[in-house]
Specification:
The chain has 196 residues and is an alpha+beta fold. The protein has four helices and ten strands, in the order E-E-E-E-H-E-H-H-E-E-E-H-E-E. It has a five-stranded antiparallel beta sheet with strand order 4-3-2-1-8, with no helix packed on it. The protein has a three-stranded antiparallel beta sheet with strand order 5-7-6. Helix 1 (27-37) packs across helix 3 (62-77).
């Protein structure tokens, strides 16, 4: 295992960790990083990297492939060629790993320290899962919550009379009711009461 800055690279599993969080690094960028970490402080030429990363019977655009791998590696490490913290570029010659590197034999790490590291990784994964589940639940509640403007009220009865047996329709969008309305007689239909 190689340790440099906030990074740890496990050469056996091919995993790169940044402050306990696993980073995506695969293929040629991983192989370039491993080649540089095996010779920290030394110049690793482009020819050496070509022999190590691409077999002699494979015909590819080596320069383009190596440049892409270095750019991908720098992206994961969070640095640029202009301001290197880890990989120094020698134009058309090669690269040198400039950060201090600690090489740790994983088998020599005490079991308690390995258990503590694994516990931290499990807690980080559990925390990520909890945040993801909480986000999904909050989004589901927000989507299902009716908006205030979704409810519309409209008077369906008259001001006079009495409503009998109001019920919601089976579709839930209408109200069914019966109403008795007392209507006054028209004026000409009224007869004066006469005593008599």
């Amino acid at each position: 295992m190689f340790r440099f800055g906030v990074f740890e690279l496990d050469a056996r599993t091919g995993e790169l960790w940044k402050s306990g969080v696993k980073q995506k690094l695969q293929g040629k960028p991983f192989q370039v990083l491993l080649a540089l970490l095996e010779k920290p402080g030394d110049l690793v030429t482009r020819d050496e990297l070509q022999r190590q990363l691409w077999p002699s019977d494979v015909f590819v655009d080596f320069d383009s492939g190596l440049n892409t791998a270095i750019n991908g590696l720098r992206f994961v490490l969070g640095e640029s060629a202009e301001h290197p913290h880890y990989i120094e570029t020698f134009a058309r010659t090669g690269y040198r790993f400039i950060a201090p590197v600690d090489v740790v034999d994983v088998d020599a790490i005490p079991a308690a320290a390995r258990a503590q590291r694994n516990q931290r990784l499990r807690l980080a994964a559990l925390g990520s899962i909890v945040v993801l589940v909480a986000t999904v639940v909050l989004m589901a509640v927000a989507i299902r919550r009716p908006r205030a403007d979704a409810f519309q009220f409209r008077q369906v009865t008259f001001r006079r009379g009495q409503v009998w047996g109001a019920r919601f329709a089976p579709d839930g969008h209408a109200i069914l009711y019966t109403q008795s309305i007392v209507r006054p007689l028209p004026l000409r239909a009224r007869r004066p009461l006469m005593a008599g």
